[in-house]
Amino acid sequence: MEAESEPYVRLATMRQLHQAMADLNTARSLADTLQTVADGIVDGLGYELACVNLVRADGDLVVAAFAGNSAAEALITGRVGSRSSWERRLSMGEEWDELRFIPHTDGWVLLDDDVPQWHTEGPEPRFEDEWHPLDRLYAPMYASGGGNDLLGVLSVDRPRNGRRPGAWGREALQMYASQAAIAISNARLRANMQRALVRLEREQQALRASEESFRQAFEYAPSGMAIAEMGGDQHGRLLRTNDALCRLLGRPASALRRYSFADLVHPEDIGTLLRTSAEGGRAELRLGRRDGTYLWVSLRNSVVADTTDGPRFLLTHVEDIEERKRHELNLAHRASHDALTGLPNSAELRSRLGSRLCERPHSEATSAVEVLDAAYGDADDPDARTSGYDVDSAPGGPYDHHVHAVAPDTEHDDGAKGLAVLFCDLDGFKSINDRFGHHTGDAVLIEVARRLTTCVRDGDTVARLGGDEFVVLADGLGAADAADLAVRLRNAIIPPIRVDGRAVRVGASFGIGWAACGMTAEEVLRSADQRMYVEKRSRAKVHRRAG
Question: Dihedral (C-alpha) 137, 139, 140, 142: value to the nearest 10 degrees?
Fold first, then answer.
């Protein structure tokens, strides 16, 4: 049960992490951004205390934000730790990729340095990976654009589960620190630009000074920047781009001036771009590079005026989020796919199946699954006659705006097509596990998954339900088509499988169920499972008679 719930736990953690990252972009000022960073660690990553230590102009680090304890916040916010003390901390301890962990056994040497700190009280650890009150964990933040230009350090204390973070928790904290550094850099950049805009609106002398300041901020910004026309026949055309954007897209500035972002966006993201408001809008989408590839970026728009009453232009900030998107896709894939075979897992199978089924309106009539049982006959009787089930004619009335999943008439085979659900259970797999060990059993499952996948169409789904059970979803099949598919799949499984120079064999029993609107995903799978057991018992009877 714990293994089955792990994808859901990871998916919930990933959603909390994504929400914390999304909140970083909602803060309006640098101070708000810093506090949002600290709050996100407590609310999104599950630590009891979080501190944001920001590098000052003189190189020392000041406690700029704190979360988790109001008393501690009042005591240490604004206190400064020397750069030398911080460098000492970041150079010792255990390296968890970019993170630095100093266990309590080593932390005694830091008690006399000047780094502001606060930790929770608690008992001595009772097991190896339990968090000790004097353990320290730091996540350095570096300025965007690469390099080792330290922007600040996130320090966290005591995970709420009481354990030192594992690989999953470390990856989440490191990813969050990377996005926090981007948010802080962006907040500083926005603050500088807003101050420049205020000076532009006051007087001509301030306008000239601010123009230079703006030019410096624009040209030397570590992330991509662009100025585009606003209004008129050429609305959106790029007028000016900085070097960072040119490098990001692999295109020279002269070439970019022939385009607008609408010309560069991925076709699937054009709707996202169009839905983005020109004034203060934000979107995450893909932009085309010169080599034909696409890059995920965060695109934020703001409006600037050339003079008080002069023309307005669109200032666009473009941030590379390719790595974060890749992490998101990897996390989503790991949460929805089986780690051994790479097939969709039980949760993903139920999601895909459930998305095809609409619920029947509430009525006092017989439930849809009972109607199906009546139509198909006794599932325990292999000789039971079956018939089709028309959901639109079922009690409760027809549905609106939905292409219904309807079970074909298996008795008359009138040519109707439906969504076939083939439940597969391997025969003899347990004896392979018992005789040759789980390594051989795992290799067999991987090969069976490969063979099933090669025998279905591109649009079909092959999923591992758990153990030695697989499920195939194949849409647009009639009764005869589904029976033929089951035979092909069985024939593909039974040839010998070689593992470590040894040939082993497994058989397969298939049960064919049909998805119909009004049923739940669980009911559909249960129906196919029952028919698989009917087939298995029937084959066992034939075998005994033959014996």
Answer: 180
